[in-house]
Design a protein that fits this description.
The structure holds two protein chains of two kinds.
Chain A: E1 3-5, E2 10-14, E3 19-21, E4 24-26, E5 33-38, E6 44-50, E7 56-58, E8 64-68, E9 73-78, E10 87-94, E11 100-102, E12 106-111
Parallel strand pairs in A: 2-12
Antiparallel strand pairs in A: 1-4, 3-9, 5-6, 5-10, 7-8, 8-9, 10-11, 10-12
Chain B: E1 5-7, E2 10-13, E3 19-24, E4 31-37, E5 43-50, E6 65-69, E7 75-79, E8 88-95, E9 106-107, E10 111-115
Parallel strand pairs in B: 2-10
Antiparallel strand pairs in B: 1-3, 3-7, 4-5, 4-8, 6-7, 8-9, 8-10
The chains are: A mainly beta, B mainly beta.
Chain lengths: 112, 116
């Protein structure tokens, strides 16, 4: 079955620093991959998604992610973090049914 | 409406009581999902509805959990004889297409359930 692993439970970065959140998936074929963000008191919002083609995908809020088949990874990046980026980030993969399988999330703290 | 609406936003109940959680999806979205978010556990898939097809109930954790979707729109998640381990945030999402083919899921803000 498809699964998603987010190795980092918590990450702390300074405002203005670069960010990389890790995501590894387990899937037999090329998966559909997603990153969602959950800000405090808000619902989950889609940041970006990968289906096929160019392995570097751009999303909203200045985020990007790179699909690396050889490493079974889909890491999320941002060159310069803003305080408003503090949130919970979830990686997800489509499963053979109808829903998305989500990782357990990475909590991002941004320090001044 | 503009987004997925869920009610109540917060529910505190006593162990053994039944609860109903409501989800009003985005108009025109044929797919509707329920997820459960427990502390440190990510999002756990519960059930999926697509149009008039039979729902995918494979994620429901026990027979105390059930859900229905009336008229292809509003959905109700019912938990009977609640237990303390049912305490979680229950999230509803809807999409125009299937998640497995890339349909974007739009989430509500969730219903936080606390079982005392």
């Amino acid at each position: 079955a498809q699964s998603v692993t987010q190795p980092d439970i918590h990450i702390t970065v300074s405002e203005g620093a670069s960010l990389e959140l890790r995501c590894n998936y387990s899937y037999g074929a090329t998966p559909y991959l997603f990153w969602y963000v959950q800000s405090p008191g808000q619902g989950l919002q889609l940041l970006l998604k990968y289906f096929s083609g160019d392995t570097l995908v751009q999303g909203i809020k200045g985020f990007e992610a790179e699909f690396k088949r050889s490493q079974s990874s889909f890491n999320l990046r941002k060159p310069s973090v803003h305080w408003s980026d503090a949130a919970e980030y979830f990686c997800a993969v489509s499963n053979s049914g109808y829903a998305l399988n989500f990782g357990k999330g990475t909590s991002l703290l941004v320090t001044p | 409406g503009a987004g997925v609406s869920q009610s109540p936003s917060n529910k505190v109940t006593e162990k053994g009581k039944d609860v109903e959680l409501r989800c009003d999806p985005i108009s025109g979205h044929t797919a509707l999902y329920w997820y459960r978010q427990s502390l440190g556990q990510g999002l756990e898939f519960l059930i999926y509805f697509q149009g008039n097809s039979a729902p995918d109930k494979s994620g429901l954790p026990s027979d105390r959990f059930s859900a229905e979707r009336t008229g292809g729109s509003v959905s109700t998640l019912t938990i009977q004889r609640t237990q303390q381990e049912d305490s979680a945030v229950y999230l509803c999402a809807s999409s125009r297409g299937l998640a497995r083919t890339g349909g974007e899921l739009f989430f509500g803000e969730g219903s936080r359930l606390t079982v005392l």
